[in-house]
From TrEMBL:
Keyword Nucleotide-binding: yes
InterPro entries: Ac_CoA_lig, ACAS_N, AMP-bd_C, AMP-bd_C_sf, AMP-binding_CS, AMP-dep_synth/lig_dom, ANL_N_sf
Species this chain originates from: Trinickia violacea
Acetyl-coenzyme A synthetase N-terminal domain sequence ranges: 54-103
Gene3D superfamilies per record: 3.30.300.30, N-terminal domain of ligase-like (3.40.50.12780)
Enzyme class: ligase
Domain AMP-binding enzyme C-terminal, first and last residues per copy: 573-651
Name of the molecule in the record: Acetate--CoA ligase
Keywords attached to this entry: Acetylation, ATP-binding, Ligase, Nucleotide-binding
EC code(s) of this entry: 6.2.1.1
Family named by the database record: Belongs to the ATP-dependent AMP-binding enzyme family.
NCBIfam families: Ac_CoA_lig_AcsA, PRK00174.1
Gene Ontology MF terms in the entry: acetate-CoA ligase activity; AMP binding; ATP binding
Length: 686
């Protein structure tokens, strides 16, 4: 790269943080290859080797027309790619489209009576709901009519959803999409406080939630979170107009939390007034936002990643068809939660754009026992399965022999969200896939909309522990900290970046365009004035190794984001929650390797002078984290320490804490302001 070296160093220093997941990455040996089964290849959607030539860098950007051609457009676009305002790329400019139409209406002629969604309730004695495309069409239209005519929603308005895994969640998303309303779904496990921050940032007009849902044998009161969310957002400056509440059991309110007169609306009742109503899908510009998905970053404030309608939908449709190998007759089950990007792209928008049957299940993989996923697969005839290494590890530990007891057959399986250890991959292949399924290890992010690296299932060999090359159209590269490009196949670790823009990439961070430019393009941009996309590589924030075979192995985050069970948590968010406990003066969180979840947060806190350490304080700190963020962020341990290891300028050296927590050598600590603290911390950590 031709940038001035000193400025490169300065920006690299700003972004080089003192703890990273990549530093504690497990370095497993390179593994053998596995071949895709002939039975898979015989039926695969993509078997044409020419695909790589069709998507070579010199074919950019017109190659991506093929993605958008999978969709129905009201008006075909004029410009495939507009780079006039880098890095705010625009795709399929001039085109008009509706995402709901593409996921529902256009399938009615051929697939009216086919299941669009199979909703599997957690209680196994409850009936599975098979929502056909026709039924989906009716329910989405009626709810869209209610949102438009009773709530006055119009294109461009924002709505926060805080919904569990039920069929009503995709129905709500699609109803918003039909109207051009931007939805922002918050993971149901997040606290009311976390939801409040998102209502506030997006200035949502409504909060849509559900009264209760099942998880691990308990009917959880979810409505209480809506009250906190609504009140906190109002207190901080944005009052939503209403709270819409779906009932987990229609006709029955299943929450002990009272309804608020004039504010709370039971959807199941109110929607009855719209029975039989139809709403014309709003013809939206391709570049209008479809949704916001908040993700953790390096500051305490979550980032509202804004995804477009046309580019995003084209990207998830193409990758669902060719990387997930979805055919309309497939029964596809992605076990993620729709509250994360995986669920948006690969439970709702991608599979439904292809007229597949997509499974939405309530609960957790190992409750009531580790046979549940395989019973669901057998009962529904699932043939494509998609999950995370955390779920695979948990299922392997609690029921390694369970899959063999059930009569299901997967042709294709996905692993996503975190690095997978080769031995876990092999159990997945042998025991879950029964040796019959091809596996793709897909690396991507909330920001990227869809897959970046993966093998093309019928065309590449699989390598346990490695995601694979860039998918067709994606050209990854690895840079060192000084901005030098590492030779292809060097086997050295560095920062993985993508050379070219692509249609699925997020458009900006909601209300924070400068943060978007700085975080993703600031470090490796060659010339901030350049209008040439070649000068703007996208920095993913992950460490990776490019092996001699061109497969990328992802090592983990290089910034201060912790990936817990495949979910991103910002260290600043966790630390800020700890600091809300009055006796705490300093907090530092580090990732600790965990057998099941990959990583868990471990929290170090120091107290005000004179305050005695106690279990009660540790508990209050843990509770504060759960209350501010949700139980997913609950620290594995809270360690009360006399002092933090610090640099001479007073910065906490999280790298030293991370080494101690992971029982690794912290290296040279002589430059610390207080090197003597390390030994006492080591004793405490044990
Ligand atoms: O560190 C990478 C890890 O998950 C991060 C993205 O998290 P999120 O935005 O929540 O999206 C998760 C679902 C795509 C990445 O920066 N990650 C994702 N997929 C993989 C992975 N790490 C290793 N292997 C993967 N396949």
């Amino acid at each position: 790269m031709s940038r001035d070296k000193s400025s490169r160093r300065a920006s690299a220093e700003q972004q080089t943080l003192d703890v990273s997941e990549a530093q504690i990455a497990v370095h497993w040996p390179e593994e053998d290859y596995f071949l895709p089964p002939a039975s898979f290849i015989a039926q695969a959607n993509l078997t044409d080797q020419d695909v790589f030539a069709r998507f070579s860098l010199d074919k950019f950007p017109e190659c991506f027309k093929e993605f958008a051609d999978l969709l129905d457009w009201y008006k075909y676009w004029e410009t495939t790619f507009d780079a006039s305002d880098p890095p705010f790329w625009r795709w399929f400019v001039g085109g008009t489209i509706n995402a709901c139409y593409n996921c529902v209406d256009r399938h009615l002629t051929a697939y009216r009576n086919k299941a669009a969604i199979h909703f599997v309730p957690e209680p196994e004695d409850e009936t599975v709901q098979h929502v056909t495309y026709q039924e989906l069409y009716v329910r989405v239209n009626e709810f869209a009519a209610m949102l438009r005519d009773s709530c006055g929603l119009k294109a461009g308005d924002r709505v926060t959803l805080h919904m569990p895994m039920v069929a009503e969640l995709p129905i709500t998303m699609l109803a918003c999409a039909r109207l051009g309303v931007i939805h922002s779904q918050v993971f149901s496990g997040f606290s009311g406080a976390a939801c409040a921050d998102r209502i506030l940032d997006s200035e949502s007009r409504l909060l849509i939630t559900m009264d209760a849902y099942w998880r691990g044998g308990k009917l959880i009161d979810h409505k209480e979170k809506a009250d906190t969310a609504f009140a906190e957002a109002a207190e901080k400056g944005h009052q939503a107009e209403k709270v819409l509440i779906w009932q987990r059991y229609s006709g029955k309110y299943s929450s002990p939390t009272k309804l608020v007169e004039g504010r709370d609306v039971i959807v199941n009742e109110a929607v009855k007034a719209f029975r039989g109503k139809r709403v014309e899908p709003v013809q939206m510009p391709a570049e209008a936002p479809l949704f916001l998905m908040y993700s953790s970053g390096t500051t305490g404030r979550p980032k509202g990643c804004q995804h477009s309608i046309g580019g995003y939908l084209a990207y998830v449709a193409w990758t669902s068809k060719y990387i997930q190998d979805i055919h309309p007759e497939d029964v596809y089950w992605c076990m993620a939660d729709i509250g994360w990007i995986t669920g948006h792209s690969y439970i709702v928008y991608g599979p439904l754009a292809l007229a597949a049957s997509s499974v939405v299940y309530e609960g957790v993989p190992v409750y009531p026992d580790a046979g549940r996923p395989w019973r669901i697969a057998e009962n529904l005839g699932v043939n494509i399965f998609h999950t995370s290494p955390t779920a695979i590890r948990a299922l392997r530990r609690s029921g390694p022999d369970e899959p063999a007891k059930y009569n299901y057959h997967f042709k294709h399986m996905t692993t996503v969200g975190e690095p997978i250890e080769p031995e876990v991959w092999k159990w997945y292949h042998r025991s879950v896939g029964k040796g019959e399924a091809v596996i793709v290890d897909t690396w991507w992010q909330t920001e990227t909309g869809g897959f970046l690296c993966s093998t093309v299932p019928a065309l590449h060999k699989m390598k346990p522990g490695s995601a694979g090359p860039g998918i067709p159209g994606i050209h990854p590269v690895i840079y060192d900290d000084d901005g030098n490009e590492l030779a292809r196949g060097s086997g050295k670790a560095g920062n993985i970046c993508i050379l070219n823009p692509w249609p699925g990439a997020f458009q900006t961070i909601w209300k924070a365009p400068e943060r978007y430019v700085k975080t993703y393009y600031g470090r490796y941009c060659r010339d901030p004035k350049s209008k040439d996309w070649r000068d703007w590589p996208y920095m993913a924030g992950d460490g990776a190794v490019d092996a001699a075979d061109g497969y990328f192995r992802i090592l983990g985050r290089i910034d201060d984001v912790i990936n817990v069970a495949g979910h991103r948590l910002g260290t600043k968010e966790i630390e800020s929650a700890a600091l809300l406990v009055p006796d705490v003066v300093e907090a530092a969180v580090v990732p600790v390797a965990d057998e099941i979840k990959g990583r868990v947060p471990e929290l170090y806190v120091s107290l005000k002078p004179g305050v005695e350490a106690s279990e009660d304080i540790a508990k209050r700190v843990a509770d504060s984290v759960v209350e501010r963020i949700g139980s997913i962020a609950k620290p594995h341990r809270v360690l009360i320490v006399p002092d933090m290891p610090k640099t001479r300028s007073g910065k906490i050296m999280r790298r030293v804490l991370a080494s101690l927590s992971n029982h690794q050598d912290p290296g040279d600590v002589s430059t610390l302001a207080n090197p003597e603290i390390v030994d006492s911390l080591r004793a405490l950590v044990k």
